[in-house]
Amino acid sequence: MNKKALLLVPLGLVIAGCAATKSVDEHPQPRACIEPDPITGPCTGNPTDPKVTLNLNTMKANPPNVCANPGSKIEVKISPEPSMAGSVSVVAKDNTHTWLNGTNAPDAKYIYVYVPTWIGPSPDYYYGFNTSLGTCVDPRVDIITR
Predict the structure, then answer these.
(1) What mean pLDDT comes out for the span 132-138?
(2) Residue 13 phi, psi (nearest 5)
(3) DSSP characters for 39-104?
(4) Of 75, 68, 74, residue with least CA distance to 119
(5) What's the predicted TM-score (pTM) here?
(6) pLDDT, tens digit, for every residue of 72-126?
(7) Strand 65-68 relative to strand 102-103: parallel, antiparallel, unpaired?
(8) What is the C-alpha separation between 25 and 30, in angstroms, rounded?
(9) How many CA atoms lie within 13 A of 76 on its CB side?
(10) What is the set of domains in the chain, with CATH numbers?
């Protein structure tokens, strides 16, 4: 067999493999988030000191609908504690609600979300928790201005 042909066959396989990988990366499949149970009641928790616990094993936020006042700090405790800071994030579902974005860095066990003093009531402020393992859940926040 020709030496050039022997070189072209493996090179062709490498190029074909890279092309297949590239097409998969260009079109990632959307992740389906775990939806919380339907929330029928009012928000819960102390609006002046709002706290949420995110259970990484069940991917459930408790409470799924937290009350918060403008100017308050929402403390999100992550349980069990992640092994790495920056591995869990909270992301606003509406791109204009950037105040909801945050991550568990530098403290791996907590995320702190600061509610601006100028924020007004809305029917709901939706956000999601995402992990570096690709899991996510979609809870929400109600701002109380009474």
Answers:
(1) 78
(2) -65, -40
(3) --S--BS-TTS-EEEEETTTTEEESSEEEE-TT-EEEEEEESPPSSTTSEEEEESSTT-GGG-EE-
(4) 68
(5) 0.71
(6) 999 999 999 998 999 999 998 888 999 999 999 999 999 999 999 999 887 678 8
(7) unpaired
(8) 12
(9) 32
(10) 51-143 (2.60.40.420)
